[in-house]
Design goal:
A five-stranded parallel sheet has the order 4-3-5-6-7, with helices on both faces. It has a two-stranded antiparallel sheet with strand order 1-2. With about 150 residues, the protein is α/β, with parallel strands linked by helices. The protein starts with a strand and ends in a 5-residue tail after the last helix.
Length: about 150
């Protein structure tokens, strides 16, 4: 049933969880990649926020966006935190520990090196670059359909 917020004589209809766009935060050090992902995901109906991976020093900017899923590049140049650091910090955070994450990377070597560690993190999927839009869409559908991790 739709929720309503009443202010004086006016009633504002709030969307049900089922009709509200899902919130995705994308973290990357490439401005073109951020722009592309924002446009593509918004055109698919998602509520998208982006974070410049060159300037992220903590996971607080992620918390402030209130995402339901995070897409993070494994390797962020010039950042205080790598994508790996972000994934570990999010998993260690009491409020975001079950937040689904997609770690995208073109670094096949590092992905293989960290395969066991990545597999041990709940609700984390790897997306190797280059990837297709169909691959992103299928992964998002699967992750949003999955039950929340405990």
């Amino acid at each position: 049933m739709p929720r309503h917020v009443t202010s004086g004589d006016q009633s504002e209809r709030l969307p049900d969880d089922a009709t509200r766009p899902r919130r995705i935060t994308v973290i990357n050090d490439n401005p073109e990649f951020l722009e592309m992902m924002e446009e593509l995901l918004e055109s698919d109906g998602y509520d998208v926020s982006v974070i410049d991976g060159d300037n992220i020093a903590s996971i607080e900017p992620i918390r402030e966006k209130h995402p339901e899923l995070v897409i993070v590049d494994l390797r962020l140049r010039g950042a205080d935190l790598s994508g790996w650091d972000i994934a570990l910090a999010v998993r260690a955070d009491r409020e975001m520990c079950a937040l689904p994450m997609i770690v995208c990377t073109a670094d096949v070597w590092q992905t293989r090196e960290r395969a066991e560690e990545l597999a041990a993190l709940p609700a984390v999927e790897i997306l190797l670059k280059p990837f297709t839009l169909d691959e992103v869409d299928a992964l998002l559908q699967r992750m949003f359909a999955a039950p929340a991790a405990d």
